[in-house]
Every structure is written in C-alpha cells, then in structure tokens.
Amino acid sequence: EIHIKEPIEKEVNPHLLPGELLLCEASTVYKYMQEDGSNRGTYGKLVCTNFKISFLDDDSASDDNEPQFKNKIVGENDITLQCVDQIYGVYDEKKKLLTGQLRKYPEKLIIYCKDLRVFNFCLRYTKEEEVKRIVSGIVHHSQTPKLLKRLFLFSYASAAPNNTGGRNQTVMFETLEDWRDELERTKGNVKYKAVTTNEGYRVSEKLPLYFVVPICISEESILKYEGRGIPIWCWSCHNGAALLKMSAFPKEQDDSISQMQKAFLDGIYKTISKPPYELLKTDDLSSSLPSLQDIQTAYTRFKQLFLIDNSTDFWATDVKWFSLLESTNWLEIIRRVLKKAIEVVECLEIQHTNVLLIEESATDLCCVISSLVQVMMDSYSRTKSGFQSLIQKEWVIGGHGFLDRCNHLHKSEKEEAPVFLLLLNCVWQLVQQYPPAFEFTETYLTVLSDSLYVPIFSTFFFNSQHQRDTNKSGESLKTQSGPFRFLTVWDWSVQFDPKAQAFLNNPLYAEKPKPDKSQRKTARFKHQRQLSLPLTQAKPSTKRGFFREETDHLIKNILGKRIGKFINSSDEPPNSLREFYDSWHSKPVDYHGLLLPRIDGPEIKVWAQRYLRWIPEAQLHGGGTIATAAKILDLMEEVQSLQVKMDEEHSQAVSGGVHSVPMLRNSARLSSLFPFALLQRQSVKPALPTSTWKDLEDEDDLVKRDDEFVDLSGDML
C-alpha cells in the first residue's frame, strides 16, 4: 500500500548558486521516508545540476519548517555530486549497482551518500523519457571520471561575487611570515629555519612553497633528491624536542643508487643528532601502522553498518551488532593510531627525544600522527582557530592528496582512503573524553567531515599547494580575466548563520586562566575535579580490555559504548610507555596541558553523531548530549540577557532591542539526532519482531529502557 500525498500543483524551482546550471529534471518522483517501514512518502521533482542532486517538494517552497541548524549551501534534500557514494537501481525487487551506460532503467533509485544518508526514490509514476534523462544524468555526473577544471569549484569561483571572506584568525601558512611566526610561537626558531628554496616549485611540486628544516641542512641537500630524505619540521615541544617528518626514498632501486641514498641519509642523521639537537628517534609509519589499503577496507566495511535502507534492516543487524562492529576492524585502527601518537608524545615529553616520522610521501599517516600529537600536547591546537591552522599547516599546505584520497574526480579507487576522516575520528575520541579541553564541539567535527564533499571551498579539493596555485588562473564569467578567488572552508558564515554557528562552539570550554602563578595550580585543580570525566584510578586496573569500575555506569549506553578490539597480551605497550600512560591517568587533568586519550578496549567508541544521525531507531527523544548542550546554551543566553538588563539599569540608558532571546526554547523536544535530523521523527517496527525487542510492548519502551539504544555519544543528564 502506498500512502499518497497529492502531487504538487505549484511549480517549485531549485535554488541555484552562482555558476550552478540545471542539467536534467524529472517530475512526479516519489521519495520514500527512509525511516518508515511503510511506503509513505511525498511527491516532488528530482533535479540534477552541475553541483548537486536535489529533491523538491511543496515543503521546499515554504519556510515554515525551517530546521534550526540549516546549512545555507546544502539543504536537507540536497546531495552534492561529490557526496554520492553509490547508486543502486531496483529492478523487480532486485538491487543492482548503476555505473556507466544503462540499457534498462530502474523503477526505484537508491542513492547512498558519503555522509551516510540514504535516499529512496520511486520512478514508477514518472514519464519514461524523464526517467531515462534523470537516471543517466545522475549516474554520469556523479560516478564517471571527470577533469579537475570540471569541478563545480571553478564554476562557482568564476561566477560568485568577489568575496575575500573572513579568515576567522586561521593561519593559512601560505607565506614565509606565517611559518616564522609558528616557529616563534613554539620556540623552535633557535634550531630550525623557514626556507624559500622551493619558490617557483624548483625543488618539488609536492612540497609547499615554504617549509621549515633544521638550520644545519643546506640548500644543496634539499635540492639533491627533490626534498626526499630531508627532515621537515612539524612542531617543537616546550622542552626543545621537535616532531619532524620525512618522505622516504623508493624501496625498489638498483644497488648503486640505494648506496648513495643511504650515505646521504646517514650524513643527514649525523648532522641533526649532534648538539644543539636532541637525540633522534626514527619511526617508519608504513611498517608500524596499518596500510592505506587496510584503512580503506576497514572503513568500507564499517560504513555499511550505518547505510541502512529501512527499519527492518536496522533491527535485523542489531542482534549481531558487536560481532559486525568488531569484524570491520575500524575501531582497532583508531586505537592503534592513538597508541602510536601516545608513543611519540612519550618520546618528546619524557625522553626529550626528537621524533622523525617516515612515510613514502609523508602526506598521509604522517599528517594523522603529527596532528594528533599537536592536539594532545599543544592547547592552542584545541582552540577552533588553532585546530583550523593545524589542518592548514599539516594537511592543506602539507600536501595531503585530498583529491585522490577522497576520489573527488572518480579517477582511481586504488588511491582512495579515508585518511582525513581517520584523524577526525581520533580527535573525536579526545573531544568526547575531555570536553572542557576543546573550544569546538563534536558538531563542529561532524560538519567539518561533511565539508569534505562541498566543492565551493578549495580547502579539500586539491592534492597540493602547487596544484592549487597552477589552477588558480582562469577567465571570469564577467569577462574580466584574473585568478579565481576560492573560498576557504574556515569561513563558517558561508554555510551557517550565527545561530547555527553557536553549535560549533563549546559553551563549557575551560578557557586558559589569566596567570597569577602563585594561585594558578590550586584553582585549576579544583576546577578540573568539578568538570572532568571520571579519572582512571592510580591502583592497577583489573584485566585490561574489560570494563573497569569507573566505566560500569556507562555500560548501559550501549550504542555509544560498543567495544573495540580488546588489547591482547602480544599487543601490550612497552613497560615505559605503559608506566607513562598509567602515571598520567592517575593524576588530575590539566585541560591546558598534555592530554592522553584512554585507549583500553571499551574506551574507543563509535562517533555516534556522525554515523547514527540519520537513523531514527537510534535516537533518544528529549535526551542525549545535544539536548544537554542546547540547555546549556539556553542558560548562557539567559545569563547574557540578564547581564544586558543589569548593565542597562546601571547606566540608566535605553538601548532598543538589545535583549537576546534564547535560541532553543523547546529543548525538551529535541532528539539525540539533533541538529542534523528533523525533530520528532517516529520509528515504525517491522512486521516480524526479532529476538532483541520482541518483548517490547510498545515503541515508547525504547526511550524508557536504559540499556536499549540510549545516548550514543556521551552521558545523559
């Protein structure tokens, strides 16, 4: 049975951005409500442009149902072409993957998105010609290889009004001064220097224009092997120890070349191991961490758990959830990466040793580990502008191949790997373990992960600074020739209005106290004990890999606390590392000092907000961390409003309409999927109950039961 909503009579036209062109459309398309076991849905128009696929129904024309967290570029029923993961057609109830030319056109279209949304469209009531046009158009524009200049990024940049945009204090690392300032900030300028050797990209197109090397490294050395074998500076610790990275020489070469390269490396190592430099420890990440192929395989398996078509699938997989999650190996990879970062931190902090990370190109796992180490050791990297500057430095300017790793051009699946997503998953573990230490929220990390697929920002759409610079020149549509003015993703006002941006900032961020050195320590510790999560006890823990006493009360929050692979005895950290780890966790947390993630088995959790936000069965009505955050925002705005009133009365001056109104009056109605999913969605149980919930008498029991699908990412109030 299909519950039909009358087809729309008034014409609804898509909202087009500058440079956006309508390519094909189909009327009388029926969109199923994904969260519903029945066939309920709505009629509308399905359109495809050079930027997005969009479904328009009569709700699209009215602003009555405006979500409180609205993205100004990508709406709820919009899918950017880069966000399309896979497209399936349904033929006689059988699903078939759609690629390339189609001989037969499907009666249903299922679009799986990289942000884990699933769209179901029924084409049974659409004219045959329109079905052919829209299906072949969507498959062609989202799945076939394309040229870089055909990305919407260029169409938008040439048509949009010149907008220099606010940088929000983010350091872009595009100038020599930016690098010198960073050296000064970290006190690394005594032993390291910013070099201009690569101006005009004469050393290598893979390296940035400017970078930092040890002072003792000569220009000849940098030029000799196109920058390979040269230690490049990432960051300096407070004690003078530094984190460095280096792109390795290719392994398969003839002996004479290998001997020369080995001699060159030995010379470099000797030079930077002498005073004033600290002892050097090298770490080849290609042998000590999973390969990019392993990471891609694990993530592909992992995301399948969340790309759920219907309610029945959700309940069917729930019985095997733990084993399915375990078999993906994704949480284990996160744990291994965090453990590696802790090892590097111990070398820098305790052993006062320089650490040189080595990788073939030094632009993948090197970026992950160096970024994590800085987030853990440098409180500046835990502020919003500091974290954005870190991504610019290590990833955007550092030469991470976003274009290839995200497969934006559909050139080669062999190059695809979710390396940047891996970093965000690791940072999320820290954010949810130590919320007051971060100026940004998990919602910030979620929208940052979504921005990977929005091609109006240049940030995540080039492989290197050289590629970006060489593609900057172009003809404007206004017949003025000149370089493209690309937007940066760090200008959040492009995507969100100020009300929505409030969700990106952590209201409970423990700002750095103004130094009164005599009193600072005692005051800070008192503050930490009130705000910090339960600390690991100083006494030796029971068997590792199982829930400890302090986590017993969290066991009930099942989905958020799924167990990662337990640490087995063969994978135990070395004694010194374990002592360092246990010793740190036995002390009160300094939110502006070193942070170490808890990595024992159940401590590594699923980033629920990102992965479960479109699944209504996993929501908690009126609860979850987002409801807590919304309530805090309410209270803060109320306090600010009262402060304004007090100031007015004090000065006896009347200033019209200054009072701020709390944003979220009805926070009790929020679900844990807010702000991404609609409020008050209902989940319908499948016809045949499964063993996990057949004893439930009605749907409301899902909310009442503490141990069934409750808060996904944090503790409930």
UniProtKB/TrEMBL annotation:
Cell division is among the record's keywords: no
GO BP: phosphatidylinositol dephosphorylation
Q: Could you tell me where this protein is found in the cell? A: Cytoplasm, Myofibril, Sarcomere; Sarcoplasmic reticulum
Q: InterPro entries from the entry?
A: MTMR12-like_C (IPR022587), MTMR12_PTP (IPR030576), Myotubularin (IPR030564), Myotubularin-like_Pase_dom (IPR010569), PH-like_dom_sf (IPR011993), Prot-tyrosine_phosphatase-like (IPR029021)
Q: Does the keyword Cytoplasm apply?
A: yes
Ordered alphabetically, the record's keywords are: Cytoplasm, Sarcoplasmic reticulum
Family matches, as SUPFAM superfamilies: (Phosphotyrosine protein) phosphatases II, PH domain-like
Q: Where is the Myotubularin phosphatase domain?
A: 173-611
- PROSITE patterns the UniProt entry points to: PPASE_MYOTUBULARIN
Q: Which GO terms describe its cellular component?
A: membrane; sarcomere; sarcoplasmic reticulum
Pfam families with a match to the protein in the record: 3-PAP, Myotub-related
Family, as annotated: Belongs to the protein-tyrosine phosphatase family. Non-receptor class myotubularin subfamily.
Its protein name is Myotubularin-related protein 12
Gene designation per UniProt: Mtmr12
